[in-house]
Amino acid sequence: MVRTIVIAASLLLASTVAPVVANAEDAMKGMDHSMPAKSMPSDAGSKSPSSKAFLAANAKMHKAMAKPMTGDADVDFVRGMIAHHQGAIDMAKVELQYGKDEKLRKLAEDIIKAQEGEIAMMQQWLDAHGK
Question: So where does this one cross the membrane (predicted)?
Fold first, then answer.
């Protein structure tokens, strides 16, 4: 726990002290936005239908989040969060399709309901602001 707090504090400090990248899109050019190699499963489980579905949902979310920045923090936040929330919904649907633990299935259902509502609110905000 202490290690987690120290790491989080270090990251927060680094993010506030580090220079701000003027154009996030340029900074991300040429980067592979799929899962990092370190976190890619290499065991037989990664070939299971559920693992393939989780990997597909993650790749779809990261692709949707890699939109060009507008320079408007509100718009960029909402667009990124819509993609992020949709990723959570897609992963929750994988849990419902393949998962067996009733508590986790209930959590997945709750995530879907909450995230769909938040996506609708954010989409309405974009529409209301002509974005």
Answer: none
